C-alpha cells in the first residue's frame, strides 16, 4: 500500500512554482498544447485560415472595434478547436470503447466548433457586406 502525500503537498509540481519560474513552465505547457493541436488536421486547416484572416481583419475592419471582433472571431475558432481536441483526448484516455455518454460529449464539442465557425463566418460576412456591399 502506498502512502498518500501530506495534505498540504501539491500533487503536481507546477502548483508549487511561483513567479517567473511558474510562468516559464506554464508557457512551455502551452506551447506543447499548440504542438499537440497541430497534429489535428482540423486545427491545421483553421490555422491556415487564420494566417489569411488575421491580417485581412486590418483591411476589412473600419475601426478598432471591427478589427478586434473580426480577429477575435478567428481566435475563438482556434480556441474552441483546441478545447474540443482536449475533450476528445480525455474521453479517449478514459476508454476508447464506444459509449453513449462519450459520443454525446464529443458531439457537443463538435457542435461548439461548428457554432464558433458559424459565428466567425457570419461576422466576416456582415463586415464584408458593410464595407463593400452597400451597407
3D architecture notes:
77% of the residues lie in helices and 0% in strands. It is mostly helical and 135 residues long. Helix 2 (41-60) runs antiparallel to helix 3 and helix 3 packs antiparallel against helix 4. The longest helix is centred in the last third of the chain and has 33 residues, at 100-132. It is extended, with a radius of gyration of 20 Å.
In short:
The protein has 135 residues and is mainly alpha-helical. The protein is 77% helix and 0% strand. The mean pLDDT is 91.
Helix and strand layout, with pairings?
Elements: H1 19-38, H2 41-60, H3 64-94, H4 100-132
Form type: extended
Protein structure class: mainly alpha
Helix content: over 70%
Element-by-element helix/strand order = HHHH
The tally of helices reads: 4
| Beta-strand residue fraction | under 5%
Number of strands: 0
Radius of gyration: 20 Å
User: What composes the largest sheet?
Assistant: none
Ends apart, CA distance between termini = 71 Å
What integer is the average pLDDT? 91
Amino acid at each position: 500500500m502506498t502512502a498518500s502525500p501530506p495534505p498540504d503537498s501539491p500533487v503536481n509540481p507546477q502548483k508549487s512554482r511561483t513567479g517567473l519560474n511558474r510562468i516559464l513552465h506554464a508557457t512551455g505547457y502551452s506551447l506543447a498544447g499548440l504542438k499537440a493541436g497541430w497534429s489535428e488536421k482540423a486545427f491545421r486547416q483553421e490555422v491556415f485560415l487564420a494566417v489569411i484572416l488575421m491580417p485581412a481583419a486590418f483591411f476589412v475592419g473600419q475601426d478598432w472595434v471591427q478589427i478586434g471582433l473580426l480577429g477575435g472571431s478567428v481566435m475563438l475558432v482556434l480556441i474552441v478547436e483546441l478545447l474540443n481536441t482536449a475533450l476528445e483526448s480525455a474521453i479517449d484516455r478514459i476508454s476508447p470503447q464506444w459509449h453513449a455518454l462519450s459520443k454525446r460529449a464529443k458531439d457537443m464539442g463538435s457542435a461548439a466548433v461548428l457554432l464558433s465557425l458559424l459565428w466567425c463566418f457570419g461576422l466576416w460576412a456582415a463586415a464584408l457586406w458593410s464595407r463593400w456591399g452597400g451597407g
